[in-house]
Design brief:
With 320 residues, this protein is of the alpha/beta class. The chain has twelve helices and ten strands. Helix 3 crosses helix 10, helix 3 runs antiparallel to helix 11 and helix 7 crosses helix 12.
Amino acid sequence: MRPFIVAAVAAALGFGAAVHPAKAEYPDKPIKLIIPFRAGGGSDGLARAVQAAVDKHDLLPVPLVVVNADGAAGTVGTRQVLNAEPDGYTLLQIHQEMFAVSALGRVEYTPADLQPVIQASESCLFVAVPIESEFQTLEEFLTYAKEHPGEIKQADDIGSSTHFPSAQLMQQADTQWAIVPTGGTSKRFASMKGGFTDMALMSAPWLTKGKNDLRPLAALGSERFDDKPDLATAKEQGYDVEGCLRRRYWAPEGTPPERVAYLADVLTKALQSEEVQTYLDRNSEDLKILVGEELQAAIDADYQSYLDLADLVKQTSTKN
């Protein structure tokens, strides 16, 4: 029986409300924000700051619940969102680690299988060597790497989002070096300090945390760091390389546009709050809000850069 006939019959019998209950206003239940990394990391930190701002300023009529789903380079949590109902009650916050695993063919999904909601922030990396290293400049380092192929060892996560700008730097300098699987930035720092590796890409807070043990050779953003204005970018030094992590929010594909817009508005207000700005400043991240077509264009260009470098990343993924 067609739906309008069922409705008419139900109304005639006096129980239309039972068949078609009044629709609740969105949102009417908690919204889950999945962080596909461990608690206490950078992604988790931003999510907790956003959650606190939402609560403090009553930006949602329901709780925003942060859930950590760590595992397999972010794929465990990402799959939870891919498989969630596209109803506006599940969100994912992730940086380009999703692009890395997709570009390398380690997963069957791509960014196109999710609905982008908003870009929140950007945090750029820098090239670092141990303080006792013989290399005083980026040019010295790359010249040595070119003259001694395979001798340099870089501390990193093989196939990670930081491996890609490393491969781009190798490509620009027409050389290759070894990637040693160490883990996150604190483990990279320990590896360099212990003399096991010669170089790493480090996140901006390590300009301060590692100032007595690391020598920065180049900033990997489009501009110099505000708190390290004397550190030239790789681009200024003749190498067209960028290494910045951009934290973005995503919803399941098929989420209604009006709900995506609603969530983007709520998150924009939270990100612009004093609490979140304080968090970003403390962690050397910049507020870089993008939505709509501008966001999609940035994602497309970003992902394409990962696809362009995928083969080189695979070539430099041999464990040493």
